[in-house]
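Fold this sequence, please.
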Amino acid sequence: MSSSKFCQSCGFPLAKDRQGGGTEADGSISTRFCSMCYERGRFLTPPEIDTAKKMQTFCVEQMKKNGYNAFVAWFATRSIPRLERWKGRR
């Protein structure tokens, strides 16, 4: 498995993840997904988040709840369709 600089689900910079990344099923740290998206080898997003567009909307709403303005949230999530998890699932 290759490592990434950004979470391959939401685009969050892995270097800024306070937990060092999500965890694989065996408990090891994921080199591809952040702790907000991935735990024990499973994605934490609700099951209905099954396309890149839905993930963008979900992330924008979560960021707005955490005090980011709408433009910054949109800008930060615009790369989601190009991430590993969402390739082919627009």
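The two ends are 24 Å apart (CA to CA). Residues 14-85 form one domain.
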